[in-house]
Structures are given as C-alpha cells and as structure tokens.
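Budget justification, computational time. The allocation requested in the original proposal was used primarily to generate structure tokens for proteins on the priority list. As evidence of use, we reproduce two of the resulting records. The first is shown immediately below.
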Amino acid sequence: MRPEPGQLLHFSEDPTITRFAPHRAATAAEPDAYVWAVDAARAPDYWFPRACPRAMAWATPTTTPADRDTVLGPGGGHRVHAVEYAWLDALRTTRLYAYRFPAADFRPHGTPVPHAHVATRPVTPLGPPEPVGDLLAVHAEAGIQLRVLDNLWAFWDAVTTLTVGFSGIRLRNARPRP
C-alpha cells in the first residue's frame, strides 16, 4: 500500500473519516496542530495497529557492510521491522485503511531528513479509504523482514548506534527495559 505520484497517505483503523482537521496529540513533541501524512518511503512505518510499538531499520547509502549484516543479516533484504510478541495477534487481526491526499496540501516535516508531511488546514481525502489488507502479507510483498521479539529495547539500542536508518514509533507502549 503506497501512494501514487503526487499523493500522500494517512493510515487509520477508522474507515469513516471524511475530513481530517489539524490536531495536537497529547503526546506530541511539537506545539502545533497538524494533519499527518507519509510518502511512499515512510508508508511501511504505518503498516501496524496504531498503538503497536515498533522499531524499524533499513540500509541507507552510508550504511556500512558490517552494519547491514548486523541488522539485516544474510538474505534479510533492505529493511527490518521489529515488534513484540504481545502485539502479534493485533498485527494479524487489525483492519487498517489508507486515506489518499493530494501532496500539494502538505509540506515536509522533520529534520535533518523529513519523516512525514503535515498540513495546517483541514484536508479532505481524494476518495474513500482503501483496506490495507493482511498486515503480515503487505510486509512480505514489500520484501520487509518482520522480526518478532520478546522486548524491543536491545534491538532499538543497537540500531540507533549504527549507520542504518531507523525509526521508532509508539515505543512508550513497548514492554519495559529488562
């Protein structure tokens, strides 16, 4: 599930949204209200239940061969997503939907490399939401390694010190550090 050229996506478990209004989440680090969306490169970060903690890593042009082997392993492809066993049933059963937006309504957000796109005005989707489908299958179809761990923290601590790209989402919902 990726956006078409000129589009961005927003993923939700709610298939009934007809208009997205800017809001500020209680846990947001930014003071401003936004409508959030992602491009094709970051769409896989959201192929999860909303509350699911996940740690993700991928090879970049500056990733060393040693770091690539350490994180992705032989035959591991270009990207790995890690979740905890406690979230596996939710990953199997959550119904997720993708809303398409015109990219022109948004601006890149994040430094030094944008990780999302934001709008500060209400945005109407281009059409009805599309079911993402089986979340395990979309990972497999994209060639993304899905790792299921007892606890995310050792993986997260390792990838954040290496030359791979990485992102952590909803880590506050992960099991406590051992």
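The second record produced under the same allocation is shown here.
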Amino acid sequence: MKLGQWIGLIAIFLCLYVLWQIREVLLLVFAAVVLATTLNRLARRFQRSGMKRGFAVLLSVAIFFAGIVGFFWLIVPPFAQQFHELTYRVPQGFERFNDWLDQLRTRIPSQLVPYIPDLNSLIQQAQPFINRALGSSFAFVSGSLEVLLKILLVLVLTGMTLANPLAYRKVFIRIFPSFYRRRVDGILNQCEVSLGGWVIGAVIAMGVVGLMSVIGLSILRVKAALALGVLAGFLNLIPNLGPTMSVVPAMAIALLDAPWKAVAVLILYFIIQQAESNFITPIVMAHQVSLLPAVTLIAQLFFVTFFGFLGLFLALPLTVVAKIWLQEVLIKDILDEWGHNHEKETELVIIADSPGEGDYTVETPIHKERPTDDAFSPEE
C-alpha cells in the first residue's frame, strides 16, 4: 500500500473510534430527530387544514407535552398511594407468616422443627444486602439526574430542529457528493415516511394493549387499573421486554388484595402479550413498517448491548432507518450495480457502400452510465 492509502486507512479507523466514543451523544441526537420528525408530520397535517406553520408547530408541541403531563398525572398518584400501602402491608405479611411458622412448630414432631426456616434469621442474613441497596441510593439519584439532563437535551434539540427542519436537512445532504444529493434526499423522504408509519403503528398497538389491560384489571378488581393499563401500553414501545416489565407492578398491587389475584394478573398479561405479539403488532406493522420478527429481536439485542437502555428503547426506529439505508445504498446502488457500471453493449449498424456490394457490420461500443445530478443543490 502507498503512503496515501495508509493515511486514508488510519483516518477511517480514527473516525470510527471517535464515533464509537460519542455513540451515546449520537443516539440522543437520533432520538431528537425521531421526535422532531413525528411532531413535524403532525404540524404538516395541521398546515393542510389552513393553519400557519408557527401555530401548527406550537399546537403539535402542546399536544406532545399534554400527553406527557397526562401520562404522569395518571401514573404517579395511584402508584404512590399503592406502593405506600405496600411499605406497611409487606411487613404485616412477614409477621403473619412468621406467626404461622411458630404455630406450625408446635404441631409437628420435634425432629422436623430444625427444618422449619426462621424468618427472623433470614431477615438478619439479608440485612447486609439491604444496607448495600440503601447505600446505592445516592448512585440512583445521580443516575436519575443524568437521565433528566439527557431528556432535557433531547427536548432542546427537538425544539431547535423543529423550528427549521429544512436547514438541518440541507446541511446533512451537503455531506454527500453533488451527483448523489438528490438520491440522498429521496432516501431521507423514505426514512421520514417509514418513521411516521412506525409511530402510527406503535400508537395503535399501545392503545389496544392499554385498553385490554384496563378492561382485564377492572374485571379482576385490581386497584389502580387505569394507571397500570396506561403503563402497560407505554412499555409496549419496548417489544418483548416491555410487557415483562409492566407485569411486575401489576402483580405487586394485586398481591395487596389476595395471592390468587397476582396469579390471575400474570395469566392476564400473558394472554395480552400473546395476542399483541401474534395478532396486533403483525397486523398493524404489516401495513406500516415491514420488519421481520427475528430482525426485530436481533436488533434489540444488538442495540442494548452497545447502547444500553436507550438503545433498547430506540431499537425499532434505528432498525427502520438502518434497513432503508442498507436497502437503498448498499443493495440497490452498490451490490445491484456491481459490474454494470463499465458494462458495454454493442449495436449492430448495417452500412451499405453501394447497392451491389456486400453488407458488413460494425460493432459500436455504447457505454451505459448512470445519470448524474450535478445540477442538484439542496437550496432548490
């Protein structure tokens, strides 16, 4: 390899290293782009009805923040009340269980008494783990502050992008060569449409899962059924793992009434999860975004491994965008055209010098070249 090639190779590795170091920042930027794209599409719908751009954007942002405030207003008060009840109901449960064990010791043979567990000794043995968990509360608080700062950063970037999305789009297109800019503009349009389809499909699936959860929990007479149903619908944004996370608080609150209710809640959530994964999501997403279930699961494992919880939350939109770029750039523009850029076709031209002389053919090479878009400029 020549010196210039070595320098180019080293530059590529340096760029990849820098991108890897700032991967979390890039993920936050992507989250802001997804949110800005969604709100921008909503603002465009308002604009079609005759509303001005500024009022349409303000209305879209107002709807978004109203949804966030409504979510926490529905979730936080009931959960705070129910989990406050858990703080004194759980110790009462331990005391009753301990009294039952004491009564059991008096009714069984003395040879079996050592095999009956002592709840007090178990609590004493678990005390170091409890202290360690309490000692890590400061780390939890600092982590919560970090999450809040990241959310604030995403909201600020979303507002800045939403104010003038065309300017940021032009800057991104300028990164590519002039002959490829029109092609990039078309790919971005496809990404925007697909992200919009994913948002619509996710909202429909969230609504159906939340409604089914509220109805089922209300039939079982579980407290805070509305809050638990809203939480189940929201966590449905995280495929495969979200429903598993949502069943834990539902079972904990159901356990306050009776143990059988906790088991019934587990069965209910299992049925809802099966209906969602086998019927709701395939039907909805088939009309919005065409993603294979195995690809979705692999994408989740990949993004959660390299990007953590935020990567898990954004796994589907990242997969949608990556699929479009791979399909359009790698497959269509590179692999499908491999070996065809320099392919020549011959045209047989029959030339007659005179009416009586023999005809002969001349092979004229004609090069097939891809059309260029040198005249395209993002300002157009």
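A brief technical remark on that second record: Residues 25-110+145-337 form one domain.
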